[in-house]
Structures are given as C-alpha cells and as structure tokens.
Design a protein that fits this description.
Chain lengths: 704, 371
C-alpha cells in the first residue's frame, strides 16, 4: 500500500494506478453486469406483468351505454322513449383547472348564470370518476364548438348518445318516475363500471326504478388504441349494445295526458280503470314534476319551485295521498245494508239531523230531506238515512264490505310504495287507541269521515268492483292473457239497485246533475263526496285558506247499465265535490269522444296559461328572474327522498282520537230537487260548483 | 505487408473504436427513426449528421500533441469557469435558470464541456505535482478547489445531474492519482453523514421529489413517478426479442416521456427487447475496456490519468442513464451517449473519445520510439 513508505516515487504511483484502475475497471464491469441483470429481471422474469400493463395502457375499453327499454302504453304509443342527442360531460378526476374549464364551457355552450352555478354545485358534490352532466340535447353547433376544443379541455367529454324522453312530460311524472346519473351510493351497491360511464342513467323513481334491470339492457363496448392524453388512434373492436326490454303498460297515453291536463292548477288525482279487466287506463297525480327536466339533476330554480309549492308536486297522490272519502263510500255502505237484508224501501224521515246519544249528527242538508229511502239516500246523499241504518246494521258489516270492495288494501302493483289507509272497525280501534268502539264512530264512518282514510286508487278499485261485481285487481303491466277476474259474489239485484241510484246522482234528481256525459246513449253513474278537513269553527271548507278547504271527490262509471270504465277523482282542498265531478265528466267524455273533450280542455287551458309544461316554463322564467343564482342550492337525492317521505308521513298521520261528530258538507247540485239539465261545460269557463244552499252550511256550533 | 491494400492514412485510424461507435450511433438513429413514427425527421438524420461532425472533431483531437493539451489545460479550465459564470449572470438577468449560451450558429452548454475539461485540468495538476507530495494536503486541497468552483456553479443552475457527472470524472482522477486510500474512506463516510442534511437543505423541491419518487415510484404513479413507471413498463413489455421495430406502443402512444432523449433506451428496449439492450451494453463495455487499456498502457502519468478520467466520464453517462430508465436511479436528466438525441452530450463524449484516441496515439509513438 501507499501508506507503507514515506517516500512516494513515480514508480509507486504507477503501481498504485495499476491497482486502482483494476478497481475502476471492476466497478464498470460490475455495473454493466448489474444493468444486464436488471434488464433480464424486468424484461424476462417480469415480462408478463409489464406486458399486461403495456396492453392496458394501449387499449382502452369504452362502454357504450345501452339504449334504455321504451315504456309503452296499451296501444304501443311511447310514454318514455330514447332520443339521439349530443351531450357533454365532465370527469372530475381528470379536470386540471376546474374554474377555467367551467368558464370556457359556459361560453361555448351558452350556459346561463343559474346553470353554471348548478353545475358548480354538482361538481362539488361529485367525486372521482363519477361523471357530471354538463348539458344534453345540444344542437350541432354548440356540440361542435366543444368537440373541436377537447384537446384543450382535459376532463371534458363530448359524445353522441341517447337520452330519455318523456313526450307528455309532467303527465307521467309520478307514474313513470325519472332517470338520472347513478349516485355514489348506487355505485357502492353495484360495482358496475357501466354506472360511471358518461351518459348512462339509472331509474330514480316510479316504474323507471322498479324495472331498472329489465329496462337497462347490456352495454356495448368499443376497444380503442389511445395515446397517453386519451386521443383515440384507431378502433380495435366494436360490440353493439343490447337495448333494454320494452315495458308495455295498461295505461292509455292520450287519456293519461288528458286527465293530467284537465286537473289544471288543482292538486289531486285521477284514476281510470277498465271494469272488465282491472287495467289501469290512467293514473294521474297532479301537480307533477317534468321528468324531462330531472334527468340532468335538479337545478336550484326547480328545487325552489318544488319546495315553495304547497300542492306538494313530489308526492304521488294516487298511491300515497290519503283522504277521508266522504260520501263516496255511501254506495258501498248501501251494498252492506242490502247484504245485511235491509229492505231498500225502508225509509227514515230526515229532518236535518239525528240525535245519537247526547250528540246531534246533522245531515248536510239542514232543512232535511223528508221521507228518504235507500235510493234517495244515495242520490241525495242523505246523511241521516245512513246514520240511522248504520247503527242498526253495525260497523263490522260495513267494514267487511269496504275491505271486500278493496278499501284498506295494498294492491299487488309494481310501484314503490302504497299508503293503504284505514278501514276502521271495533277491533282496529281497540288495538290502536285501546278504547271501545262507540256508536258515533259508526255514524262518522258511514259518511266517510272519522277514521276512514283511503287513497284515490282504492276509490277507483271500489268503484270498478261496484260497477262490475268482479273482484278486479288493478293492473299496470299489460298482459292480454291475464286470468279473468272472479265474481265478488254480490247479488246482481243489489248491484243493479245501487247502479240505478248512482245513475240518478247524475241523470236523475241527484247531487251531480251537471256531471251528465254529453254523449248520446251513454249514461254515467256516479257519487259525489265532500270531505271536511278542519272543523267548522276554523273554516266553512269552501273559501278561505286553501289548506283548510274541503276535499272534493267523485267516483263514477259508464255506461251505467253495462259498466266499462270506472273513474275516481280527488281534488285536494277543492272546496267540495263540485271541483271533482266536472273533471271526471270530461275525462269520461274523452274515452268516448276525444275531440269534444279536447275542445273543452283547450278553452280552459287558455284561461290557465297553457298546458302544465307551458305553465311550468312560465313559472321557471319568473323564478329565474326573481331569484336567479341566489336560490338555495338544490337538494341531493337523499334530501329529495327525505322531503318526499316527510310529505308522505304528514299525509298518513293517524288521526287523533275522534270524539266529535263530523260536519257533513253540502253537496253541490243537491239544492235542485229536479234533475239538473246535463250540459257540457262551456269552453273557457271551468265548471263551477253550483251555489250550495247556504242555510245548509250554517255553523251549528259544537255538538251538544 | 497486408495493410498495403488499404491506404496508410485510412488504415492508421483507430477503427476498433470508430466501428463500434458507428454501429452504436446507427442503432441510435434507427431508434430515433422509430420514435418519430417511422420518420427520419426530426431526429434520425440530425443524429447521424451530429455523429459525422463530432467524429471528425474527435479525429482532429486525436492528433493533438501531449504538450498542446498540457498547455491548454489550465487556460481552457479558466475560460470554461468564466463561461459558467456568464451563463449564471445571463440567467439571473433574464430571470430563471439557463444552461446555454447562444452563440448565434449554435448553442453552447459550458457545463457539458466542463466534464472533459475538469478531467484534463486535474490530470495536468497531478502531472505537475511532485510524487513526494501525493500524501500531503497539497495533493488534495487545490484539486478540491478546482473541482468545487465549477460544481457549485452548475448546482446553482440548477443541474444536479451534470454536477454529479463533473464530480464523478474528477473524483476518479483524484483516486487514480494515488492519494491515500483512507482519505477516500473518510470522505465516503462523511458523504453518508452529510447526504441527509444536504438532501433537505441544498436540493430544490423538484429535485427532492425526484429522489423521493425514485425511492417509491408507486407513491404517485400519475405524478412524478409516472416517468419511471412508464419506462419500466416499456422495458418490461419488450421481453427477449422486443415487440419489433416500429411496434413500440409505449413510445408511439406517448406514454413514455422523452422517448427520444433521456428515455431512448426504454424506447429501444420495447422494440428490440433484451437482445437490443445486451448489444448496447456490450458496445459500451467494449469501448470502456478499450479506454482503460489505453490508460494502463499510457506512457506517462498525465496520459494515464487523462485517458482513465475520460473513460469514466463516458461510463458515468451510460450507467446513470440506464439505471434511471430501469428504475435504479432518480430521474436526473442525463442522456445515453450515441443513442439519445442531443448534440451537447454527443460532443462531450466524442471529446472524451478523441482524447483517449490521442493518448493511444502517443503511447504508440513512445513505444515505437523506445522499441
């Protein structure tokens, strides 16, 4: 070694160089071998792993969202279809500069301030690779404007796709539901990459949600070679999507649309059933949302409109609205009487009230109906007749008949929830309130007040069963081979009697003379109902605050001697049955003469400010002008569901224990002793309930 | 004589070096041709022209006399240091880092020239140092000063890779000059102690990130670790024979960053596989072995140190680049000579080659004289 001697000569240095250069040479060779070994390790031993990685880099599998199965009406007219359109989406994870991208998209797509604000909200809530829809249904110019700038807009996708289209919009909102981008919860539940494919929508409500798997179909796929920046180099392979299965309903699209539009600005429900098969021809709950506007998420203006509306557009009132049915239960009660052996000729003398125990139960007609038998009890809707005989027959028989005719029942329907209400009887009250049944409970129940709660679908089923005598089940999915409904086992004689009395309601000396159909040779049978919402000392039920007004009911079927169609109409807080029967009459008219019915409707819509879609558009413009971006941000799905549940819970709130006599409310046309002339409503003037006999509505103070 | 068939002037040239380099550079052109998507432009043609020009330069250098190189060693060193200062000043005025001087007809990167420059300077220094002083402080401190000035200037640019490269060649010259071994052991121990401190104080953020990413590439596969991951995928998917010329998906689909410069080896490995890699490593080993042989056979101390230092400078380029693309070293931005596109590094390496050729020529002459 060098250190061995103190004297260093050039010779020792040369020796040292010799030795050390061998070390350097060894180092170089060692590194060379190391590099070769490393390369062998990566390229030969781990070749499979890296080949796979290289392939997954090179090849990009793009899912093509399947075309969603159409939802068709009974005549194959589309209730929900697909439209080819252009769309633009954002992938939050791929955005580099969200603010700049949003601003640029806003300019290219001409988005309004409100739309941009909503988009920012959606982007804030979205995460990862969950796509956020920027716009759909774009015209070619705006689509092309974004397409050509895609290289400068990382995270933005512009593509052709299919979007859901509901031709009649709000008319089918509650029935069909709507579609929307899959939520993070959906994805957590079903780890399917299709759910985060831009442009793919899942059913969020109604039939769209219930039949999600059938309607969805199988996605197509495109294998493409892509560059690191996502530019497609060439297509490698293409597999077509398999469209979802169509779903054919029993609904008649024109009737559904007509009924929805005929509701006008009112809140309520219209159900039309086929009396031969139980097919539901229309199932309308209004006001409704427009499912077309929901598929891109609910914007702040839409949310504000929905939250402000006391008519609760998010609640499906057909299935989840519970109402005291009022006098519409009287034909059912009469059938119970007949089954119990009551002679229809048996009569009471109605003097305007009946003392039961220490309370006086009034008839809606305080002047009294005089001599009243069963037929008059129905067509004049005399309360005293029913008070009297119900006590004789007993509640159990009435409750049994109510259940036989479908009240209190949850039907086997492909829907997301039904509130089945209450058919009270002694057992029920004992269980619910731990109190014995009282006579006045029977009295209240026979006029559809008190504990009795039904939904509009149940009313329609009851009507159809009374009309047909068959144990009809409501059906929503079209099935030409459905089994024939069985008979209810009711005596045809009893049914004929009730049918005649119900016909007299409309065509005779009854309470709804103006409900007569403007169709030759078709007579409609019906029954009015006016259900009190609050006691008389708060409101008379006809005027004042909307939420205190009486509910209006009308049930009917036609033709009365050979029943084919049954219909139930509920107008929430309509102020009485006078709000309901003109709607029922026009809807039934539409079944026989669509042109005539449409003419009536168009006149009315001129006064209301257009179709529901047009009115919503007007309201949207007003709200945008008034609130703009200052409207609170829209709720997410969970909040929406909670809001709906809250509304339902409120509707289904069990009544407080009832110790009062119900105050029967005046029936519209009953003042006319003679049959009212049946006239079609004049175009342009919504049919008004006839002036009710004011004396009948005079408050009588609290029951004694 | 058999050599009569070929003219003397041509036969005299060192073909045992020129031919391997020509093969290597032609292979490089082929890789660049593929990286450009099957085009000679913009890289392959220029790569070949660069080689021709710098080969001519190397042959000219190989005819320089020993005395001439000894004469220019110190003035050349001073000029290069001044140029580094100038680069720093221009960068400071222009705002931001700059490594080049624009000479109008070409851009000059003084830090590149400093790599052979420092080797020449130190070889000259130890040549003049009396052997007896080898074990005293006078053998180390001036050398450390000569190395420290340019290294610090390059670090300021900041260019960690080049600074390391300059130091590597210099340290090898100092090592081979016969300085006491315990100094190197001590320095190595000190370096291990200082590195953690330097890592957190001297390095810039982006340099620190590169090192951290090297230590754990998967920590950020789409960020700074992306380069290393994609390079390994390219090399690993090549297998034994590669995907075939022009079929590299990693490079053509732009997954591989800098496919024509720093990561050219990965571009090659994807298309030519293990076989291509062995060829490149083999040619380098051949050249490095030749360089060290020349150094060992050199007639005097100056020539020995010069040839060995130049050899190590070439080795350092190759080793760091190939280690980097295979995930064994941080991304430092050192190209692979004769393969990667880029004039500056090719010029540096051809200067090294030319100098080694000169040493070989001197030793022939002196052995001829003595024999």
């Amino acid at each position: 070694m060098l250190g061995a001697s103190n004297h260093v000569s050039s010779g020792t240095l040369k020796n040292s160089f010799e030795r050390r250069s061998v070390v350097i040479g060894g180092l170089q060779l060692g590194v060379g071998v190391l590099l070769a070994a490393r390369m062998a390790w990566i390229g030969l031993v781990q070749n499979d792993k890296y080949s796979t990685l290289s392939e997954s880099n090179r090849v990009n599998l793009t899912l093509i969202p399947p075309r969603r199965g159409a939802i068709l009406d009974r005549n194959n007219a589309p209730l929900a279809a697909n439209r080819a359109d252009f769309r633009v989406d954002l992938i939050p994870d791929r955005l580099i500069d969200p603010d700049r991208t949003l601003t640029e998209l806003g300019q290219l797509l001409q988005l309004s301030a409100v739309q941009l604000r909503d988009l920012r909200d959606k982007l804030e809530k979205a995460h990862g690779f969950q796509p956020v829809e920027v716009a759909a249904g774009l015209d070619w110019d705006r689509f092309a404007a974004v397409s050509v700038r895609l290289p400068n807009l990382p995270g933005v996708l512009a593509q052709r796709s299919f979007s859901r289209w509901y031709p009649t919009g709000p008319s089918v909102g509650h029935l069909i539901g709507y579609v929307g981008t899959a939520s993070a919860e959906d994805y957590a539940q079903e780890r399917n990459p299709l759910l985060i494919t831009p442009g793919f929508k899942v059913g969020k409500d109604g039939l769209e949600k219930r039949f999600e798997q059938e309607l969805r179909g199988a996605p197509g796929a495109r294998r493409v070679e892509v560059t690191a920046t996502g530019k497609v180099v060439r297509d490698l392979e293409m597999r077509e999507d398999v469209p979802g299965q169509p779903l054919k309903l029993t609904i008649s699209a024109p009737l559904q649309d007509y009924a929805a539009r005929r509701m006008g600005p009112e809140s309520g429900a219209v159900v039309v059933m086929d009396c031969l098969t139980g097919d539901l021809l229309s199932m309308v709950s209004m006001p409704s949302f427009d499912p077309n506007n929901f598929s891109d998420g609910i914007g702040r203006i839409e949310w504000k409109m929905l939250s402000d509306d006391d008519h609760v557009p998010l609640r499906n009132k057909v299935l989840r609205g519970l109402f005291p049915p009022g006098s519409t239960v009287k034909p059912m009660v009469a059938l119970a009487f007949l089954e119990a052996g009551l002679d229809p000729k048996a009569a009471v003398n109605c003097s305007g009230g009946l003392r039961v125990g220490n309370r006086v139960f009034h008839c809606w007609n305080r002047r009294g109906h005089g001599h009243t038998d069963m037929a008059k009890g129905i067509y004049q809707s005399c309360d005293v007749y029913f008070y009297h005989f119900a006590q004789k027959v007993g509640m159990q028989r009435i409750a049994d008949m109510a259940r036989r005719l479908g009240l209190g029942e949850s039907y086997d329907l492909p829907v997301l929830g039904q509130s089945y209400g209450t058919v009270p009887d002694p057992d029920w009250k004992q269980k619910k309130y731990n109190r014995p049944w009282a006579v006045f409970d029977t009295v209240n129940a026979t006029i559809g007040q008190g504990y009795m709660l039904v939904n509009p679908l149940q009313q329609a089923v009851m009507t159809a069963r009374i009309a047909s005598g068959l144990e009809l089940q409501p059906r929503l999915i079209f099935d030409p081979n459905a089994p024939k409904p069985r008979s209810l086992g009711l005596s045809q004689e009893h049914l004929d009697f009730v049918h005649q009395a119900m016909s007299d309601v409309v065509n005779g000396p009854g309470t709804a003379g103006r409900a007569r159909l403007p169709i030759d040779n078709v007579l409609m049978a019906g029954k009015t109902g006016t259900a009190q919402v609050v006691s008389l000392n708060i409101s008379d039920g006809k005027s004042g605050a909307w939420k205190y007004r009486d509910h209006g009911h009308f049930i009917c079927f036609a033709p009365f001697d050979k029943p084919r169609y049954a219909c139930a109409v509920v107008v929430q807080h309509g102020g009485g049955s006078g709000a309901a029967y003109p709607i029922a009459r026009d809807v039934m008219t539409f079944l026989y003469d669509p042109a005539k019915a449409m003419e009536v409707l168009q006149g009315m819509e001129a006064g209301w400010g257009g179709t529901p879609q047009q009115r919503q558009a007007t309201k949207y413009r007003e709200y945008t002008a008034r609130y703009g971006v200052s409207a609170p941000r829209a709720a997410n799905e969970a909040e929406l569901a909670r809001a709906g549940a809250r509304a339902d819970a409120e509707a289904a709130r069990p009544p407080a224990i009832n110790t009062e006599a119900a105050q029967p409310r005046a029936e519209p046309d009953a003042g006319a002793a003679a049959p009212a002339p049946a006239q079609p409503a004049q175009p342009g003037t919504p049919a008004q309930p006839a002036a009710a006999p004011t004396s009948a509505a005079t408050p009588a103070g609290s029951p004694q | 004589m058999t050599r009569q068939i070929i003219p003397e002037a041509i036969a005299r040239e060192p073909w045992h070096v020129i031919l391997p380099l020509l093969l290597l550079n032609t292979f490089g052109s082929a890789i660049l041709y593929s990286a450009a998507g099957g085009n000679l432009e913009p890289w392959a043609t220029l790569h070949t022209i660069h080689f021709a020009v710098f080969l001519a330069m190397a042959l000219v250098i190989s005819h320089f006399s020993r005395d001439f190189l000894k004469l220019v060693a110190f003035p050349g060193y001073v000029v290069l240091v001044l140029l580094l200062v100038l680069v720093e000043l221009i960068g400071g005025i222009g705002g931001g880092s700059q490594r080049w001087l624009n000479l109008g007809f070409m851009t000059l990167q003084p830090s590149e020239l400093m790599k052979p420059g420092i080797v020449l300077m130190l070889a000259r220094y130890y040549d003049t140092l009396p052997p007896a002083m080898t074990k005293s402080w006078r053998s180390l401190l001036p050398a450390a000063g000569l190395l420290g000035v340019p290294t610090l200037l390059v670090m300021l640019q900041p260019d960690l890779g080049t600074a390391l490269s300059i130091s590597a060649g210099a340290v090898v010259v100092i090592f081979l000059a016969g300085l006491p071994l315990r100094w190197f052991i001590g320095a190595g121990a000190a370096a291990i102690a200082i590195i953690p401190v330097a890592f957190y104080t001297l390095l810039h953020d982006y340099q620190r990130n590169r090192v951290l990413t090297f230590l754990d590439p998967e920590s950020d596969p789409l960020g700074t670790g992306y380069h290393i991951s994609q390079s390994k995928i390219a090399i690993g998917s090549g297998g034994f024979f590669g995907k075939g010329f022009g079929n590299g998906s990693q490079s053509h689909l732009e997954y591989l960053p800098e496919a024509h410069t720093d990561f050219a080896f990965a571009t090659m490995a994807e298309e030519w596989g293990f076989v291509g890699g062995l060829f490149i490593l083999g040619v380098f080993m051949w050249i490095l072995r030749w360089g060290l042989q020349v150094a060992r056979n050199a007639p005097d101390r100056f020539s020995m140190l010069l040839a060995a230092g130049m050899t190590f400078t070439i080795f350092f380029y190759m080793a760091v680049n190939v280690m980097m693309v295979m995930g064994l070293a941080p991304v430092v931005g050192i190209p692979l000579p004769w393969i990667s596109h880029g004039g500056s590094s090719l010029m540096t390496n051809m200067i090294c080659i030319g100098t080694i050729m000169a040493v070989e020529r001197w030793s022939k002459r002196s052995s001829g004289l003595s024999g």
